[in-house]
């Protein structure tokens, strides 16, 4: 499954190296700058794919562990500490995700670790309403799809099932499409509920 994604990451790094070589060959400053900019874009796309790969693995493993933990009865009856809501955790996830795109390569792993930690907390909580369900789906879609540098997480809401694009994975696209479709169903339901009764329904 991840082989295709790893191939994409490797291809991005190869293209970045080619762009760097071309930049080194250029004498004209404008041409050199163009190739260096191309190198930077390929590296950013590789980082985006890596982020999705790492976060996806982490969330899947945490979901598996959460399922196992629910099957084990609690040892004590102490009151659990107050937890943040999915909405509050998502705001933390958004801030950490922005840091991944802004931090230099050396510090990006720390920001990705923070995203993993928050995503794990989000998937363990039950959604209290449709808005929280949509936030959970957005996190899941980010695990599978790619964002361009500087592209906000909210742009995920425009991704459509079955539509090709840089964000749609080549591996298991049906899961990605299913999440997009489910999100759209929830958004339609929310719109109907908020707009009140409709004679056509």
Describe, in plain words, how this protein is organized in 3D:
It contains six helices and no strands. By secondary structure, the chain is mainly alpha-helical. The protein has one domain (2-71, 82-195). α2 runs parallel beside α4. The chain starts with a helix and ends in a 6-residue tail after the last helix.
Question: What tags apply to this protein structure?
Answer:
201 residues; mainly alpha; 6 helices
Beta fraction of the residues? under 5%
* Broad structural category: mainly alpha
- Sheet with most strands: none
Shape: elongated
Q: What is the string of SSEs from the N terminus onward?
A: HHHHHH
The span between the termini is 41 Å
Q: Can you give the mean pLDDT?
A: 77
Name the helicity range. Answer: over 70%
The count of helical stretches stands at: 6
- For the record, the count of structural domains works out to 1
State the low-pLDDT regions, or none. Answer: none
Rg: 20 Å
Total strands: the figure is 0
Précis, in short:
This protein is an all-alpha fold and 201 residues long. The chain is 71% helix and 0% strand.
List the helices and strands and how they pair.
Blueprint: H1 2-25, H2 29-71, H3 86-102, H4 105-124, H5 130-144, H6 173-195
Helix pairs in contact: 1-2, 2-4, 2-5, 3-4, 5-6
